[in-house]
Amino acid sequence: MEKQTNRQTLEGQRIVILGASSGIGLSTAIAAAAAGAKVVIVSGNQVRINEALKQLPAGSEGYAVDLAQEANIQAFFDGIGPFDHLVYTAGENLVLNEIGSTVLTDAQRFFNVRYWGAFAAVKYGAPHIRKGGSINLTGGIAGQRPNAGWGVAASICSAMEGFTRAMAVELAPVRVNLVAPGIVRTNLWNGMPETDRENLFTTIGNALPSKRIGVPDDIAQTFLYMMQQHFATGQIITVDGGGVLI
Hints:
The protein has helices at residues 23-34, 46-53, 70-80, 104-125, 151-170, 194-207, 216-228, and strands at residues 14-18, 38-43, 61-64, 83-88, 129-138, 175-181, 236-239. By secondary structure, it is α/β, with parallel strands linked by helices.
């Protein structure tokens, strides 16, 4: 029988996090660095990257990359060198519209970063992942539990789940998993008026079994677990305070 060693650590490992200048991505970077990892954070805005680096240990790296452009993603990975884990949390504010008022070109644009950006990151990042490493993607519960107006969001989440399973098979033994958050307090909701946003958070939080909505660290801890464990692959890990139950 193969001897089992304690591999559940991120000490000394290098983690590349795309979409990490704020919210879930930045929380994941902070938590990973606290666990001993060397983190590389990527976002589209250099000013926000610089601000995020102030919250990370010395030696952390940060790069501004337009994740809507395949060539930029390829160039980034061609120059970054080997690493252990890839985390993709990038996404822009979604506008929720029922199908009758949805402009198709706007709907297609939302796939650029959330889906095709992740697709390109996996394509160009996977060859640089060291043995025992992993790819960790982000979806959401909209595919499992959509509401009216969530047609685009549900489509992206469902597409990401299928992509995760396919890559877990194709890229084995690299582990590929996806974290599906519920409602999380991040700046992705800043497109809503503040009063409407807070009412939404309060209403949903009171309805959840957890009696609160999520915060970025809830999701960050899930990403850390998925990097540290060494057996699950092709899995969708739902972290939603019980949102799919109601």
